[in-house]
Amino acid sequence: MTDSIRVTGGRALQGEVHVRGAKNFVSKAMVAALLGSTTSTLRNVPKILDVDIVASLLSLHGVKVNYDVDSGVVVMDTSDLTPADAVDIAKHAGSSRIPILLCGPLLHRLGTAVIPDLGGCRIGDRPIDFHLEILKKFGAVVEEGPDGLHLSAPNGLRGIKHELSYPSVGATEQLLLTAVMADGITTLHNAAVEPEIKDLIDTLQKMGAIISVDTDRSITIEGVSSLVGYDHVSLADRIEVGSWASAALATGGDIFARGAQQRHMGSFLNTFRKVGGGFEVKPDGIRFFHPGGPLKPIALQTDVHPGFMTDWQQPLVVALTQATGLSIVHETVYENRLGFTAALNQMGAQVQLFRECLGDKQCRFGQLNFKHSAVISGPTPLKAAEIEVPDLRGGFSYLIAALAAEGTSTVTNIGIIDRGYENFRAKLTDLGAVID
Ligand code: EPU
Fold this sequence. Notes:
Elements: E1 4-8, E2 14-18, H1 23-32, E3 40-43, H2 49-60, E4 64-68, E5 73-77, H3 86-93, H4 99-109, E6 112-115, H5 129-138, E7 141-145, E8 148-152, E9 161-163, H6 169-179, E10 185-189, H7 195-207, E11 210-213, E12 219-222, E13 231-233, H8 238-251, E14 254-258, H9 266-275, E15 278-282, E16 285-289, E17 299-301, H10 310-320, E18 325-330, H11 341-346, E19 350-354, E20 373-378, E21 386-388, H12 392-404, E22 408-412, H13 424-430, E23 434-435
Parallel strand pairs: 2-14, 3-13, 9-10, 17-18, 21-22
Antiparallel strand pairs: 1-22, 1-23, 3-5, 4-5, 6-8, 7-8, 10-12, 11-12, 14-16, 15-16, 18-20, 19-20
């Protein structure tokens, strides 16, 4: 498969896409399987690169993984776990940040864990300080080696009281995956409460964990000495749904996202409606369409759940280039998630970036010189260009821009998009896109 795609734009995308499980839940649920002494079964699993990466990381640790792609069922037999080598982990993980989440379960089951140098999408620095602080507080001993960080728990792991300075998704998951089998009670304040985290909590409960979530972003976990496997159906990928919805809007199209679940998409649907997009919630999915006439500009701030998620921002910004007037976007989750707009400007968009917080939300980046606010002036016709994908969501956004543009664009480095968008080439073709 080549790492570039030619997209001839100017056509409305029309038809249906099937959206399966959420990348950002499925990968964590697969890690959670490590905690169970019996086999786990995960359903509605999409065929994406991140699933392959986690499957190979589990296999390296002795898990027998069976993935039936068509039915989307992954069965994980954890009866024979073994430690893995840092170099092998690094080789299989590539730039994924998942190895950090294996630590708690591996410390419980094997007594040791290794974290190779981590990458993830290039969105700012993406540090792991929250994760290490949590693991150390539970009693993990972290030693630096030439191949990465080596963790052990000579005295076992004990429950902690912890407050996050920012409701990080990964750090909340780290704490959950470690606390469920730690000795005693753990409390977490200022936790992330994304739907993917709620689904992880449901999964862990099926395994035998005792977890309660309060309305004030606090979570209490009573540690148990052993857990069993689970059988669970993943929630739908709400980021993929938002991406197809934005593609429908930017191209003047009409897309039915089969599998989309309204209950996880509230803030997106509100925003989509304010921009002037049409949607219709059906029993088996959501139809998104451009109802005709001009789109409206909006002021938008990304936020942790239940706010407008950062991963929806990039695809929607492409649609906002077609709204009449000035839209304002304040990105408060990542310091560097607006850099992708330079390529949109190259295609004819008018997006100006600002260091200031253009919104009333107190944000960590206001004083730090990061260009994390954008003013988008529209509507601007887009024209084809040669563009290189910078990260997963930025990459899909470039595809949307190319689909909305006149002429044939070449989008390179598209392999990244396979990390989170199942069969995106086939889905685009089915929707009438001209790609080769
Ligand atoms: N942060 C720290 N220190 C840490 C961890 C995070 O400062 O140790 C900061 C980050 O730099 C960022 C903020 O906290 O500014 C939020 O990061 P978070 O930990 O919430 O993100 P994550 O767990 O690394 C997950 C998703 C992201 C999604 C974010 C926010 C996965 C695998 N990734 O990342 O998804 O954007 O939560 O919702 O679940 C994507 O799917 O394209 C993607 C980037």
